[in-house]
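We both want to read discrete structure tokens more fluently, so let's practise on a single case. Would you write everything just below, so we can both look at the same thing?
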Amino acid sequence: MTERSLFNLAAPLITARGSRLLSLSLCVAMLSACAVGPDYQRPQTAEPAQYKAAEGWRQANPSDALARGAWWELYGDRQLNELIEKLNSSNQTVAQSEAQYRQAQALVRSARGAFFPTVDLTAGKTRSSQGTGSSNSSLSSSSSGIRDTYTAQAGVSWEADIWGKLRRGLEADTANAQASFADLAAMRLSQQSELVQNYLQLRVIDGQKRLLQDTVEAYQRSLKMTENQYRAGVSGKDAVAQAQTQLKSTEADMIDLIWQRAQFENAIAVLIGLPPAEFSLAESTDIPQLPQVPLALPSQLLERRPDIASAERSVIAANANIGVAKAAYYPDLTLSLNGGYSSSTSKDLFSLPNRFWSVGPQLAMTLFDGGQRSAEVDRSEAAYDETVAKYRQTVLDGFREVENFLVQLKVLQDEAVVRQQALDAARESLRLTQNQYKAGLIAYIDVVVTQAAALNNERSNLDLLQSRLIASVQLIAALGGGWDGQLQVSDSQND
């Protein structure tokens, strides 16, 4: 409904002079569409042309609204994919962030509503009395009467946003909602990353358990062979003791893996919104594959890291709040229109003689507040400087994290080559040593030492694989979720 139609409904008896006054006020308000305070400009940050740990990487433009896709599918594990889907729908930390985002969206709708007129309708009955009295020296007399008043009234008021206070407020609320949306994406990515890391570590523990089980079986055979040789008088009692010590130590290591696995399993249960008692993961014979990190592709750090997007949008909100604070120096113009009916009886209340109306603009301005407005402007500017510094630090931290994980993955890859060579040598040494022991050429202590070295190399390789898997997840998270350049615009971006 337009202001003119509201005017006609509420005050049908407005004179031509009053109508011209209202129209003039509206024109003044519309033509004075300025907004005080600074317009937003993105703060300058130190952005390298490329990552020093990965030649060919370069900085791209921020586009955090791009969909990141199912980056966890890089690990080729169906059960992991199912767990992530449960996390996306049932994780309570993500649910909290989603509720905060809906609150921010509601504030944006509320700020938009401030641009429209407010229409009120009231109806009521009042009983009142008014006394008249006279006095002469110490003597006085009074009388009073009681009357009923019935009213029905409609009113329209509208604040003209001459100085842009409402526009700056909407700008701030919109930026805060966008920051909340980015916070939601950051929290979801963080929870997904945590689940993937827990799952990968659990599967590596399954691999370690299989290794120890195979080792225990091998040690049991060695113990049996040593006991047979002892009974035959070929080996001494010390060889049997050494074989038993080696076997029991390995069994203890295998038992120790039980509580470690339970911790990761319980963590996964909580991440998907289940109590640990209601969740379990069966052991698997496969460890998820290690994704290959591209050697060269555009850096998408600022494009896809939601924490950086959130930090920048907080800067936008803080910048707009400066305008809101400065607008307090200027007068507020409110246009109001009221009309209705008033009568001492309910009968014929809505009749022509009982009608009344009023219309007119109102200017309100604070002349002295003891420096409160000035202090609020100073506070808003300081808050802006704080958010700028936080944004710049978030960018720097993002580059640092990516550089660290790139270096870590490169070093671990080189280390994996050397460790595999060491493992191959240890396996060959164990084979030769066992053959020499069976032939009676060496003592059993030599076999124990060689077996321990081979087992240590096997476990070191598994630990190294775990480190590489975890570093790959951390790199993906540091890049905002994967490195696939074929992205699509997300439909979940806010207003």
Notes: Strands lie at 118-136, 139-160, 332-343, 355-364. The domain at 52-116+163-330+386-478 is CATH 1.20.1600.10 (Outer membrane efflux proteins (OEP)). The longest helix spans residues 165-231. DSSP finds ten helices and four strands in the chain.
